[in-house]
Write a structure and sequence with these properties.
Length: 143
């Protein structure tokens, strides 16, 4: 799922049979170290699997995840013009850190439409874009 050598982004593809493929890459400067810390994790609640995420060991958030039968999502950073303003927005403007929102959406939302609505309407503390794919042909969006 990860490829570290180019710009951070994702791709949504729907083939002629309607199958959706959602892939992403990361461009962290420490890609060599981070690639050795990557795991595939399954998250459970009440004995039921609620989502999958490929993440860096020790992180407390999701950059990418999928909820079987519902949607997949990833977050990509845009270059911050004013990092201090983004940080302050989390602290005093009741904004949520962008990666924490991805994890909350994976935990709490059960549909593509619900995930899209939440990602579109929640105040976030930083310049990012979210890419979401659903399960139906051509069901995808960049927010």
């Amino acid at each position: 799922m990860y490829e570290y050598s180019t710009a951070c982004s994702a791709v949504l593809v729907c083939n002629d049979q309607g199958k959706i493929m959602h892939g992403r890459n990361l461009d962290f400067p420490m890609w060599g170290l981070l690639s050795n810390l990557l795991i595939h994790a399954e998250f459970y609640k009440g004995g039921q699997k609620i989502f999958n995420s490929d993440l860096i060991v020790g992180s407390v958030f999701a950059l990418t995840g999928s909820k079987q039968g519902a949607f997949s999502v990833n977050v990509d950073t845009r270059y911050a013009k004013n990092f201090d303003v983004d940080l302050i927005s989390v602290l005093i403007n009741n904004a949520i850190p962008t990666c924490w929102l991805v994890q909350k959406v994976l935990i709490e939302e059960t549909t593509f439409d619900g995930a899209v609505k939440r990602l579109k309407t929640t105040r976030i503390g930083g310049p990012v874009y979210y890419i979401v794919s659903g399960t139906k042909p051509y069901e995808g969006i960049v927010i």
